[in-house]
Amino acid sequence: MKVHRIRLRNYKGVEDAEVELALDGVTIIEGPNEVGKTSLAEALTLVLEQLDSSTRAVVRDARPVHNDAGPWVEVELSTGPYRLVIEKRWLRSPMTHLRVLEPRAEEVAGRQGHERLRAILAETLDEQLFRALHHYQGVNLEQAALGTSTSLASALDAAASGQALAGQKEASLLDVVRDEWLRYFTPTGRPTAERVAASENLRGLEEEVAKTRAELDELDGLAERHRLLTTRMAALREELEKKRTELADETKQWEALQSQRVAVAQAQGAHAAALAAKDEAKRRADERAELRNAETATSKAVEEAQKEVDKDRPALSAARKAVQDASERQGEARTALAVAASAEKWAKSAEEYFRRLISRDLWSDRLANARAGQSALSEARQTLVANLMDEKRLATIEEASLAVTEASAHLAASAGTVVVEALASVAVTTGAGSRSLQVGETFEQALDGELSLQVGDLAKVTVRGSAPERSLREALGKAEQRLADLLRDASLPEDTTVAQCRVAAQQRRDAIASERQAEKLVADSLRDLTIERLETEVADDEAFIASFEREHGSNPDVPGSLEEARSRLEAAERQRAAAEEEGRAAENELDAAREQHDAVYKQGEGRTTALQVARSLQDRAAEALRLARDLQSDEVLEVALARCAADAEGTEQCLVLTEEALASLDPDSVEARLENSKALLERLSGERADAETELTTVKTTLTVKGEEGLQDRLDELESRFEREARALARTKRAAAAVDLLWQRLTANREEAQRSYVAPYRAEIERLGRIVYGPTFSVEVDHSTLAIESRTLHGRTVSFDQLSTGAREQLCVMARLACAGIVAGANGGGAPVVIDDALGWTDRGRLDRIGAAFTAASRDCQVIVLTCDPSRYGSVGNAVVRHLHPTVPA
Amino acid sequence: MVRFIHSADWQIGMTRHFLAPEAQSRYTEARLEAIRRIAELAVRESCDFVVVAGDVFESNQLDRQVVVRALDALAAFEVPVFLLPGNHDPLLSAGSLWDSPSFLGRCPSQVVVLRDDVPVAVPGCAAEVVGAVWPSKRPVEDLVARALSALEPTEVARVLVGHGAIDEQSPDAGNPALINLADTEQAVRERHVHYVALGDRHSVTEVGGTGRIWYSGTPLVTDYDEVAPNRALLVSLDAGGCSVEELEIGGWAFWEHRFDLVGDDDVAEVGRWLEELSDKRRCVVKVSFVGTVSLGAKVRLDQILDEHRDLLAALEVWERHTDLAVLPSGQELDDLGLGGFVEATLEELKDLAGAGDEQATTAQDALSLLFRLAGGGT
């Protein structure tokens, strides 16, 4: 479509304005804001789309601001083979006037005019493209909705394949196919609820058919069962009747059998009784025989026992004589032993006498030594108690004494010493005493301060020395004190000299030696005894001696010495031993004789007892036999036994006969048959009862079910099932077909879109490179044809992230590219309308965009509405129209 | 002379699944009409009685309403009617339709159910009827032979009514219930019986060489394979012999036809064939197609079938025997004037449709659909 001119009257702020448009290339309609240049674009849409009777907002918005007339638009345009003028007025005196100038002149008014216009547009104009190619400033930064444009699609298809085939028809077909597809599928591709329900319904029907058929089969089965049961019942009746007759016969046989069994039992009883009587008679006869045997046996035993007793008598007499002889010999031996023992005693006593004599002397010596030792020991110990000067103490005292001497010497050396040498015997007297000095003797005394001494009567000498050192004095004092202490400890007087001490030490040593000696003597004398014991021993020996001497002192037979006594004792002992030996032999002989006697005696005694027992037994047996015979004689018993045996034989024969009779009745068979018949009868009766019950049930079921019309129901269900199955199969087949068609169509369309997006993209890039240089490229979505991203200098930015200016430029270029492609393909298409765009684009860029406009609009119509014509000053092929305000101020 | 109508296989209560409910109810009604028609003919032909040789009812388990309506139709008879229980409606020891309250309660007095093989004298004429009654669905013996075994030769016109297949005609040789034809003919020749009225076979058929053993066929067609249905037999017996005459009863027809389709002319032939069917409301048709047709021809075929489906009692396409490939012609596709992705789709579908596999049918259907939706063939 191309617009030749547009005229507005009473349209918004425009009272009357008309603009002629260039058919190819760019028409720039320039005018200040608010003059209504945007109204031109709106009016074009309004006149093509709105009925003159419309009161919609878009129409009301077109009301003039300066009067109350109806807005009026007239447009002359070419579309497809048509060239026409459409004129419309709204709101006030609505009016439509269509004049078709080419190819055939026609003129239609009113609603028909509008409808004719719509028909022409529908035939020739891609209205989606028409709308998409309008670009309004500010409100239209979005990309053109080109994806649904069929003419673009067609043009692109032509560009891609060289054939302009995919047009409006194909697009509508796709819609129709989709509608058809949606009859069978949900938008997500699942079978529709109706189809699912139909499937389920069919399944339900199938189940119902099966169920009903099963019911019918069951009925058939029941009918057959009824027939079988009826037949069976008749057979059972016959069988039962027959069995009852048989049972009666068998019962009679069984009763006869029972009678015979009683007879047998009775015969058995009689026979048993006869046997018992026979056994009793036999037992008694046996008992009597035993008694007789016992009596005979005991008599014989008595005889034999008597023989034994008689046989023992001579042996017993011999044994008694032997005992007496042995006893006599034993008496003699005893007497001889007593004599020998007495002699031995005397000899022993004499021997002891001599031993005691010796012993007493020995004991006496030891006693005397012990006593002497004890006395010496006592003495030494007393000395040791008094004299404490042992070696250690002596050494200590000697040391202390030496210390005193040394201290005195030191003191004397310090104070000086007075030495008096006697030239004649003289007494020297000091304050401490007087001392006589022989010639040559000296008196020496340390000088301690002042010493006055008198030498005889000759002189009194006073020596005054210098005072000695105090420490020396103290040392001397200490030494002296220590010595004095030691002596005191030794229980010695203070003036005891060291020499005395040494003497005392020697004395102590001697005492110790005496003590040891005495101890040894005592020990040797006593050994393990005490003095008292020794004394007792001595006394004991002496008492024996005295006693012996008193008794035998006058006996001339007393031996002369110990040796003699001992030799006599030994002889006596030997004699006594011989006598003892003899006594023992006699005793042994006696014991043997006694033993022999006892054995013989005992044997005889046993035999006598046996004889007595045998006699006793014989008495009892004879008594028992006698008593028994008193009751029943042997003959009577014999007769009874014979009679009982005969009886038993008779009853046995009787029993055999009755048992044979019973066996001939075949009792096992009769009983088994009877039992079986009873069981069979019971079973058959049960079976008949069961059959009757079942028959009633089956009959009832058949009667009730038979009139339910199951067959009709099944027929109806089967009919419905088949109909619905057929319908479902048809639907399924149709669904498969439409699905296949839809899937292939959409897949192919997508494929086509993929291929035809290429020329569109190439056109955008051609225009873009004019503006941005050779590194410019874009990515285009194949289904929406929207620009996804732009790449410049190797840097790719998604469309949404581009600057407002860049986005606007791309939107304008996309429309130019689209219009160019569509126009180039079929000379159709729609004008690109750009309302005051590129406000955000800088001057430098605008120059290049001008070149792009020129390059794009060679075959298509581009209408630019702007308040700033300088923005488009660089568009080479532009025609500029000025739109001036027409409304009186 | 004794005259009677021999009929059989009324199959009252029969349902045909391929009939829509409306057609089914007409078909059911036609069955009762056939009974009334026989009653009319019995009067017109001065018959002494009527025998129905088994399968009077389709089943023992019929709705009470069906039984009652059948009895209402039976009330139209003015002469005795002897009904024989057959394999569909055996006289069971229990649960049999014949003993149901709905049957017994309304059974007209002239209707006699043959319940055993004891000869029944026909009131008012010198004839007697013997039934070889089916006691179960699967008897284990030749029931006709059994009924014959108790009979002695007679001069009274004796009609034996039996049901089932004849041994010489049955493929199921092991079936113990088959009727022994030789024995039956022997009995006829020895005048134990004078006519054997058989049922089970739905086409009129004479059996053996005596001229006295017949299947009457069904009075109303029940299936496509029935050669001579819609009949009953008018039988006349006299001392001299036996004459049998076919009577037209039912007015329904079952047609089965296979069409070989090569070109559009053959499709037109289908239309003509269907067009020529008379009394279409009572026609049940089953067609099958073999061959290859264009999309347009297939559309026209479908239109023809759709039209006739509304006219006929039933029109089935016998899918199992149909092998029809639908392939678009170049001209057809050109006429559609489709391009771009649609054209590509068309080409794909054409390839798929020619592949001969399972998807080919779907592809053919898809092509037809596309053809139709794109306005082709109009």
Series of H and E elements of chain B? EHEHEHEEEHEHEEEEEEHEHEEHHH
Question: Whole-number radius of gyration of chain B?
Answer: 27 Å
Largest sheet of chain A: 6 strands, antiparallel
Q: What class do helices, strands and sheet pairing of chain B give? A: alpha/beta
Shape of chain B: elongated
Whole-number mean pLDDT of chain A:
85
Largest sheet of chain B: 6 strands, mixed
Kindly state the number of beta strands of chain B: 16
End-to-end separation of chain A: 36 Å
Helix content of chain A: 55-70%
Task: Count the DSSP helices of chain A.
Answer: 18
Q: Which range does the strand content of chain B fall in?
A: 15-25%
**What number is the mean pLDDT of chain B?**
89
Instruction: List low-confidence stretches of chain A.
Output: 160-165
Number of strands of chain A: 20
Gyration radius of chain A (Cα, Å) is 90 Å
End-to-end distance of chain B, in Å? 68 Å
Shape of chain A: flat
Strand content of chain A: 5-15%
Features:
heterodimer; A: 889 residues; alpha+beta; six-stranded antiparallel sheet; five-stranded parallel sheet; 18 helices; 20 strands; flat; B: 378 residues; alpha/beta; six-stranded mixed sheet; 10 helices; 16 strands; 33% helix; 22% strand
